[in-house]
Amino acid sequence: MRPEHWLYTIPLRLRSLFRRTQADQELDDELRDHVERKTEEYVGKGLTPQEARRRAQLEMGGVEKRKEECRETRGVNWLQDLLQDLRYGLRMLRKSPGFATAAILTLALGIGPNTAIFTVIDAVLLRPLPYGNPQELVTWRGNESQLDIDDIRSQSTFFSAGGGVNPEVLTYTGGAEPLGIHAGYVDAGLFQALGVSPMLGRALSPEEDRFGGPRVVVLAYRFWREYLDSDPNIVGKTIGLDENRYTVIGVMPASFAVPQYDLDLFVSLRVVYAEAARYRGVHFMNTYWRLKPGITLSQAAVGMSTIDARLAADYPGEEKGRHTVPVPLQQSVTGDVRPALFVLSAAVWAVLLIACANFAGLLMARASARRREMVIRAALGGGRRRLIRQALTESTLLAVLGGAVALPLAALCVRILVAAKPAALAHLNEISMDPTVIVFGLVVSLLTGLIFGLAPAWSVSRADVTDTLKQEGRTATAGPAGHNFRKALVVVEIAVALVLLVGTGLLIKSFARLRTVDPGFDPAHVIAINVQLPNTRYAEIPKQIEFRRELLDRLNSLPRTQAAMVGDIPLNGSEVTHSLAFEGRPPVAEGDEPEVDTFCVMGDYFSVMRVALRAGRTLTPMDRENRPLVAVINEALARKFFAGQDPIGQRIRWARETGPPRWMTIVGVAADVKQYSLAEPAYPAVFTPFAQTNEAWRRWMSVVVRMPDSSASLIPAVKHQIWALDSLIPLNRVQSMDELLGLSLAERQFNMSLLGLFAGLAMILVAVGIYGVISYSVSQRTHEVGIRIAVGARRLDVLKLIMGQGARLAALGLTVGILGAFALTRLMTKLLFGVTPTDPVTFAAVVLLMMAVVLLACFVPARRAMRVDPMVALRYE
Amino acid sequence: MSKPSDLVQGTLDMLLLKILALEPMNGFAVSQRLKQVSGDVLQVSDGSLYPALHKLEQEGWITAEWKTSEKGRRAKYYSLTRLGRRQLEREADKWGRLSGAISRVVKLKEA
Predict the structure, then answer these.
(1) Residue A133 needs a FRET pair 20 to 30 A away by CA distance; which of A75, A208, A667, A800 works?
(2) Of A585, A548, A873, A856, whose CA–CA distance to A699 is shortest?
(3) What is the pLDDT of residue A478?
(4) Residue A640 and residue A686: Cα distance in Å, rounded?
(5) Interchain CB contact of A480 with B (< 8 Å)
(6) Side-chain-facing half-sphere of B97: CA atoms under 13 Å
(7) Which residues of A touch B27 (CB under 8 A)?
(8) pLDDT for position A473
């Protein structure tokens, strides 16, 4: 457009925007003037003044409509309209706070939790791992020894890099107290494979990662920040670890973490623990590999099976039965949480769906209630597009308000989620709402407003003016067709809520089942302190035994306590496995021997933990060095390998030991103890005295102490006794067994509570939804009910009529829901324990609950209908 | 917006511009003049006149001002702007070519 043009039009447009009233007034004057002149003209032609005026007005054809048309020619109208609609919308909302609150809360409850769960899903499943080209990274379930890593690296043509890590506790001696820190024993290939460069200095180089190499350390960001005050000149300085000095060569960036572990620093396995690096027998390193560009996962799998076969042929004793299946690292990292997050996100979508359906229902009910208003506005000259736009503005306004309430709610939910922190999310300290997620929430709320606002607006705009005005007050029976749509929405809501409730019910039942599982020990008043004897001073077995014996003597002399030691405590998910051989049975091929869990104990472990003894005797202080070797087995082992025999007196040994066979005589059978989780069966296990082991690497243990009560008052005394023996031993983890038991249930409890929360939300929303539909129907049928009562219907009949309507909806919704639940609960099998996904009791209970909720939601409006006064009802319309 | 069905789209604008090109006048006078000059052939309802005038004003082709008429009554008088005059020329030119073409077609002798 030419500037000249703008010169003329801009002042006009500004005027119509800012001096609206004046412009409108002038328009009014102009049109009235016209009508007056016309009237005069007709009067001049001999018509009566009334007739003249009527003709003039007819020719103009509705002053208001013309005015609206003239206004529309003003270009800035949409902005004015928007402002006007917003003002009007806000006023309407203020005038019906009940409706507004219901709609906003409905949306907020749907969108808020959804955004929160999306945040977590985004952080856990969608966000790429913080490594270079993460899609090239693979890992596998089985661990490897350092020698295996070297072999795979040299034999594979499809990995560009690979390396391993094993978490170990080291003592950091730089602070006031000796501190146990988490070190990663790594090989240089790890940093190469993960493709992350240090923030300061450099990573471990292959030249340093060799037997007898220099003692160097790479620090994790948090350790550098918390213990070394973020010293920018740290590279080249030394820190004390386990009585050795290590030179810092690099600091990793804050975003770096080894998958699944929270480690403080990284040292070379070959340097720190050479004997382990030279030993093929124990596969203890988690490994990560980088595919060469262009290599697919299946190519790598084929390649690995060749290497597996070669290793098994070369080292049958250690490598038989290898079956390496490379999986993408992302999948492996998120694997454990995946089912739970999947179910949770399904639940969230369900709640969002219900919320949107409710919102739509509310809008439709309101649209029907305002039909008359809309029709009058149309009659007074409101254009159809204009009316739709106004209806949309109102619904969008509601949606935006809902979204505005939803976002803080979402932030709160994220905080709750992270605070509750199921173990599998433990590494996600830094979940925060990022802009994508906020945009996601806003888009969802806007779309909801637009889509569900459009339908009612459309139906109103199509309304025929005369028909509707004539119909008003004559709606004796069912309302407009929109009501059927609302009913359909409610049926869907009921069905979806039922599926959610069944899912929750199954989780609750699983949880209840799990709680009744006997862990095999009595956790009350027992604490466990993890102790790791530093390699430097306790390399020799006699030193270790001396320390252990002395410590137990000291602890058992404390009043009213009883202490013992075990290599790995129950429910901790860790253990040492050995292959087992039985005396007098035909030898088994190398690699095919049965694997069992092995635990070394000292003191009366079974009595401290109250593990029942099924046969024979427990281990005593007499079972010590230079005495006949003995072992206690658990029932699972007895069942599996001594079926129909008496295991007492039988002899077993570790199949892989070198040197002369060390036969151990089974002296007792103890009850099964849950070593991993309550949900998993106990595996065969062998308990042997610490005093009789020849495995010097068993330097870690947990001191278990049964206290007289649940107070923690004795814990300092226990710690004091340990430090009195060796002041340099770090003690960082003191756990009560009760805590540990709770922790093992925490994730399930978390899932259950969350799903329960959603199911509860869904139920409330459904109740509101059905209440809305029935209320509306009752208000539409007041007239009809009045007539019925007037002609002799009893109140009870009216109640039945209305409740019957609700019950029919419920029956339909529940039927659909039951079918849906049958189809869907199978997907959550992994989260269940001791319950089938189609547990009839759960289904029945949930159906009854839903039925009760629906009927209760119907009862309130039904009672209102029952109390209709026929006189009032008939006069009212 | 209601439009006279028998008026070619856009022609109303040209007619109004032409009428206002003769002298500034108010809406009522425009409607009278329109009827008068077209010999009642062009029936423009009062209803469609005003939106059309307002549109021309928004386009910047005509401008309006409140004046007191001969009978001492205030009325809104429209007059053509420079832009409007140019627009009228364009429209008239277009119309001339169009109507010439149509009449040539209509007058074709049947073989």
Answers:
(1) A208
(2) A548
(3) 39
(4) 13
(5) no
(6) 5
(7) 30, 33-34
(8) 47
User: pLDDT grade, residue A475 (50/70/90)?
Assistant: very low
Scan residues 91-110 of B and list those with Cβ closer than 8 Å to A. Answer: none
Conformation bin of residue A258: beta by default, left when phi > 0, alpha when psi is -120 to 50:
beta
Tell me the pLDDT tens digit for each residue of A783-794: 788 888 888 888
Taking only the tens place, the pLDDT of each residue in A496-516 is 889 988 988 998 898 888 888
* Biggest alpha carbon–alpha carbon distance for chain A: 139
Sign of the Cα pseudo-torsion (A157, A162, A166, A170, in order): positive
B84 CB neighbour count, 10 Å cutoff: 24
Distance from CA of B103 to the nearest CA of A (A): 33
CB atoms within 10 A of CB A394: 25
Q: Quick one: which of A691, A235, A765 has its CA closest to A498?
A: A765
Asked if the C-beta of A384 comes within 8 angstroms of chain B's C-beta atoms, the answer is no
Measured between beta carbons, the chain A residues lying within 8 angstroms of B75 are 30, 33
* More confidently predicted of B30 and A92: B30
pLDDT the model gives residue A462: 62
Between CA A287 and CA A165 the distance in angstroms is 7
| CA geometry: angle A165, A169, A172, nearest 5 deg | 120
Chain A residue numbers touching B1 (CB-CB < 8 A): 69, 72
Question: Tokens for A714?
Answer: 């004795």
B59 inside 8 A of chain A by CB: yes
Among B2, B13, B28, B32, the strongest candidate for a mutation testing the A interface, having the largest count of A CBs within 10 A, is B28
Cβ contact (<8 Å) for B50 and A8? no
State the pTM of this model: 0.65
- Residues from chain B that touch A38, judged by Cβ atoms under 8 A, are 28, 46
* Whether A294 contacts chain B with CB within 8 A: no
Contacts of B76 in chain A (CB under 8 A): 26, 29-30, 33
Sort out which chain B residues have CB atoms less than 8 A from A72's CB and list them. Answer: 1, 51
Q: Does B85 touch chain A (CB under 8 A)?
A: no
- Where residue A812 falls among pLDDT bands split at 50, 70, 90? very high
Rounded to a whole number of angstroms, the distance from the CA of B49 to the nearest CA of chain A is 9
At A304-321, the pLDDT tens digits run: 999 999 998 888 777 777
> pLDDT band for position A479 (50/70/90)?
very low
A13 to chain B: which residues are within 8 Å by CB? Answer: 58
Closest chain B CA to residue A62: B47
ipTM associated with this complex? 0.79
User: DSSP code of A124?
Assistant: I
pLDDT digits (tens, 9 = 90+) for A557-571: 888 889 999 988 888
Query: Residue A14: which pLDDT band, with cuts at 50, 70 and 90?
Result: low
Residue in A540, A653, A532 with CA at minimum distance from that of residue A588? A653
Contact assessment for residue A565 and residue A602, using Cβ atoms and an 8 Å cutoff: yes
